[in-house]
UniProtKB/TrEMBL annotation:
This is S-adenosyl-L-methionine-dependent methyltransferase. Residues 172-334 form the Protein arginine N-methyltransferase domain. Keywords: Methyltransferase, S-adenosyl-L-methionine, Transferase. One of its GO terms (biological process) is methylation. Residues 51-140 form the Methyltransferase domain. It comes from the Eukaryota. GO terms for molecular function: methyltransferase activity.
């Protein structure tokens, strides 16, 4: 017998949860203004939905969302009266496997919310909740490229096991978008580099480099095509199996330019809100810690206004480590000019 909650976990699982032990990763998320403010607004602007409800915070981390749900009041520090006014949820249960939950307990305590928030350390899939059902699930589960780390599986598990009929999920919609970008300089620096390393042919590493999507901020001026939605998730109805998917895309070229990479990002919506709240992680809007995901393609496409890059995006969890993703992108430039016809396919791992 051991008290170590990580004992018995697969190495990759322990690695995943351990990465959330340190305060640094939580600092990054808490400082992500777009992310944290959207969650806060979705709760504070909808006190009527949270009042007297039982709320489950899936993967509560430092318990920020649990505390929002307890106190729907848009000011900080909260006036003492509010702490006592029962303005928020009847009770919030926060669950996290990571040891950060020990600090979350202290944070809840020093903010005077211990009677309203119950924090449990353990895997969502294994813990025993003090309530058989919850009225609302809140969770910040999104990874790079939306689905990296596959924490959504855990939210779906909690939904199916605990959400009362007619219960709400915050957020409840997610959409992945794609677009083509001009990125000659950086592609040369990251990919072309391997063609000649101190006079040697390093192309075996070039192929490896090409399979690795880059998480980075893309400037809006690099975007050459219109964005196109490629995958939609409705959290009320989606099933785990649906997260392995294949979708067609068609990217409308906006200007004469070159295309070196396809990028992806996602938007998130809280549609249960009185006034819908959404945020985007795209290149056209404010920075988030998710940045964008860049998939370099093998060719350089020479594109003209009005042409289309069509293709298919396929995503599935890796068989060995289901928190990783195997992604394939095939593409074809639709052009009347036979000299610029190009097509190909890339396989990526993240
Ligand atoms: N809700 C917090 C933290 C989000 S990060 C915030 O918004 O700041 C996601 C958290 O979910 C991490 O702390 C991670 O440890 C936890 N988590 C992921 N999968 C889990 C699972 N299956 N069981 C319990 N906790 C999980």
């Amino acid at each position: 017998m051991t008290d170590d909650p990580m004992a018995g976990l697969a190495h990759s699982e322990a690695h995943y949860f351990n990465s959330y032990n340190h305060h640094g990763i939580h600092e990054e998320m808490l400082k992500d203004e777009v992310r944290t403010r959207s969650y806060r607004d979705s709760i504070y602007q909808n006190g009527h939905l949270f009042k007297d409800k039982v709320v489950l915070d899936v993967g509560c981390g430092t318990s920020i969302l649990s505390m929002f749900a307890t106190l729907p009041k848009p000011s900080w520090p909260p006036p003492r009266a509010f702490l006592d006014s029962n303005a928020g949820a009847k009770h919030v249960i926060g669950v996290d496997m990571s040891t950060i939950i020990e600090k979350a307990k202290e944070i809840v305590e020093v903010n005077g919310m211990s009677d309203k928030i119950t924090l449990l350390q353990g895997k969502m899939e294994e813990v025993v909740l003090p309530f058989p059902q919850v009225d609302i699930i809140i969770s910040e589960w999104m990874g790079y490229f939306l689905l990296y780390e596959s924490m959504l599986d855990t939210v779906l598990f909690a939904r199916d096991k605990y959400l009362a009929p007619g219960g709400l999920i915050f957020p409840d919609k997610a959409t992945i978008y794609m677009a083509g970008i001009e990125d000659g300089d950086y592609k040369e620096e990251k990919i072309g580099f391997w063609d000649n390393v101190w006079g040697f042919d390093y192309t075996p590493l070039k192929h490896t480099a090409l399979t690795e999507p880059l998480v980075d901020t893309v400037e809006m001026k690099a975007v050459v095509t219109d964005p196109a939605p490629v995958f939609n998730i409705d959290l009320y109805t989606v099933k785990k199996e649906d997260l392995a998917f294949s979708s067609q895309f068609s990217l409308n070229v906006r200007r004469n330019d070159f295309v070196h990479a396809i990028i992806a990002w996602f938007d998130i919506e809280f549609t249960a809100c009185h006034k819908p709240i959404k945020f985007s992680t795209g290149p056209h809007t404010k920075y988030t810690h998710w940045k964008q995901t860049v998939f370099y393609i093998h060719d350089v496409l020479t594109v003209e206004t009005g042409e289309k890059i069509v293709g298919q995006l396929t995503n599935k969890p890796n068989e060995k480590n289901p928190r990783d993703l195997d992604i394939a992108i095939s593409y074809k430039l639709e052009t009347e000019d036979p000299h610029r016809v190009a097509s190909g396919a890339g396989h990526y791992k993240m």
